[in-house]
């Protein structure tokens, strides 16, 4: 019998493999969109801080 950690790692690996096979490039697009939104949010927060500072 393999350990619980080993089973969890196997299940996680299989889930990720099936997910990437089904979605293809979709995760990369999601990551790029998320990074872009986070950068825009940081810029907006900095501008709001500048306006509130003034």
UniProtKB/TrEMBL annotation:
Key words, A-Z: Membrane, Transmembrane, Transmembrane helix
Transmembrane domains' residue ranges: 12-45
Name assigned to this protein: Uncharacterized protein
Organism: Halohasta litchfieldiae
């Amino acid at each position: 019998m393999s350990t619980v950690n080993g089973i969890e790692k196997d299940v996680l690996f299989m889930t990720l493999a099936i997910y990437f096979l089904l979605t293809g490039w979709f995760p990369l697009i999601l990551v790029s969109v998320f990074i872009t939104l986070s950068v825009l949010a940081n810029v907006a927060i900095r501008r709001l801080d500048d306006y509130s500072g003034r």
